[in-house]
Amino acid sequence: MRVLVHNPRSGDGKRSARAADIARDRGYDVRSSRERGDTYDLAREAVADGADLVAAAGGDGTLNDVVRGVDDEDALDRVTVGVVPAGTGNDFADNVGIRGVDHAFDLLESGERRRLDLGRVDLPRGPGDDHDDDLSSRPFLNSCVGGLTAESSARTTRESKRRLGVLAYVAATMAHTRSFEGLELDVRAGPERDPVWEGTAAMLLVGNGRRFPGEERRQANMEDGKLNVVVVEDAPAYDYLGRGALDKLLRRGASHLTRLKVPSLTVDAAKPRQFSLDGELVERRHVELAARPRAMEFVVGEAYDRHPEENPPDVE
């Protein structure tokens, strides 16, 4: 059984509606969300009902919900996941070579399936954490970004999200904040938690499906079992609303950057800070991140690169 989990509120609504129409014409079971959080429940229900393909029609947040729902049913080993890009940014779809709604359905029918890495953030409740949620672990497909403020979501334009993906929230935050509050971080890598960086950072960027501006390719290696990590130590004075500003901020070889590739990462902040998981904000003082090697079977496009050229040094 093929199920399309459909978010009618994604993007401008037009691509989402078109995706639902095409899916019905092609015999998919279309399940539409009615309110926030439904897409996660619908994905779980699809697995319980026997689906062998679950596709998300929406943006990165919808896709994250669907993958999390399939994962929480312990079904990523037997259920294929796909995406029909109908949101504002569609960052992950772009990184795996899916160029539009019609292209996505062609790929769902006959495209290549690859086993891709999935990022995981463990969110234990630690000293100084003051929050009401009961989260313990969350997946991310694109990235986990530290240092964002909740207010940045309201400041972020659709155009900037289309152009920059999750980094649009970073740009909005820094463009509207004259004195950006630094992140006091202790960053450690690998299972032995070897120290790799300590001090005051402007941003912590951790990518699974994407690299960041300043690197040659946007798409990360999604089959190597490692995360792309960028620590931005300080922020030179740029106009962050200007085109290319983040490329300047994150240019390769800049002295204020530390770039790594690691299988896992432990981050301790001096106080609880916000982290964005594919655009969804959580607040913690302590987070543990890891790559889950080839955790999900995903439908990819012709432009997907199995072995993109590597830039950051590896840390085992």
UniProtKB/TrEMBL annotation:
Residues 1-20 are annotated as: Disordered. SMART domains: DAGKc. GO terms for molecular function: kinase activity; metal ion binding. Keywords: Kinase, Lipid biosynthesis, Lipid metabolism, Magnesium, Metal-binding, Phospholipid biosynthesis, Phospholipid metabolism, Transferase. Its EC number is 2.7.1.-. Residues 1-125 form the DAGKc domain. Its cofactor is Mg(2+). InterPro entries: ATP-NAD_kinase_N, Diacylglycerol/lipid_kinase, Diacylglycerol_kinase_cat_dom, Lipid_Phosphate_FormReg, NAD/diacylglycerol_kinase_sf. The keyword Metal-binding applies. Transmembrane segments: none annotated. GO terms for biological process: phospholipid biosynthetic process. This is Diacylglycerol/lipid kinase family protein. It comes from Halobaculum marinum.
